[in-house]
């Protein structure tokens, strides 16, 4: 089981900014409306602080868009983290709308959408999220 510092580090490495970079501690502080300071986030991530309040955990969970139970979860497998990322992405109404609209496309339609998404991601300088696999 991962300790709190490992879980917070994993949040930073997994739930990144849209450009793929990790959030800064200052961005987390501002994104939590200063419910947690940048210095305290650093201490939590480094394991120098180990007993945050409920308020701090709730603010971090909200910022990284994970359930509060993440901090008490034993299973931090890549599949679990991908499920959390998907759930967070689907909270965006535009992403959800696109997902719902492509859900009933045939394989050729899905491939066309994948290619368009990849083209736009490259044009915006974003990393590829589509794996090279045959349908």
What does this 3D model show about the protein?
The chain is mainly α. It is 58% helix and 0% strand. It is built from seven helices and no strands. It has helices at 4-14, 25-31, 38-46, 54-64, 78-90, 93-102, 107-123. The longest helix has 17 residues, at 107-123. The protein starts with a helix and ends in a 12-residue tail after the last helix. Residues 130-135 have low confidence and may be disordered.
Radius of gyration over C-alpha positions, nearest whole angstrom: 17 Å
Provide the residue-averaged pLDDT.
Answer: 88
Q: Ranges with pLDDT <50 over ≥5 residues?
A: 130-135
The DSSP helix count reads 7
Largest sheet: none
Classify the helix fraction into a percent range.
55-70%
Tally of DSSP β-strands: 0
Please write the string of helix (H) and strand (E) elements. Answer: HHHHHHH
Distance between the termini: 36 Å
**Oligomeric organization of the protein chains:** single chain
Structural class estimated from helices and strands: mainly alpha
Strand content: under 5%
Q: Judging from the principal axes of the Cα atoms, what is the shape?
A: elongated
């Amino acid at each position: 089981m991962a300790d709190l510092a490992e879980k917070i580090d994993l949040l930073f490495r997994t739930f990144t900014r849209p450009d793929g970079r990790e959030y800064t501690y200052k961005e987390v502080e501002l994104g939590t409306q200063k419910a947690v300071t940048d210095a305290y986030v650093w201490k939590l991530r480094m394991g120098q602080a180990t007993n945050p309040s409920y308020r701090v955990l709730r603010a971090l969970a909200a910022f990284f868009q994970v359930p509060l139970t993440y901090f008490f979860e034993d299973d931090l497998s890549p599949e679990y983290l991908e499920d959390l990322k998907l759930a967070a992405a689907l909270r965006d109404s535009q992403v959800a709308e696109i997902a719902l609209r492509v859900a009933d496309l045939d394989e050729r339609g899905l491939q066309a959408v994948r290619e368009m998404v990849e083209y736009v991601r490259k044009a915006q300088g974003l990393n590829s999220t589509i794996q090279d696999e045959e349908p």
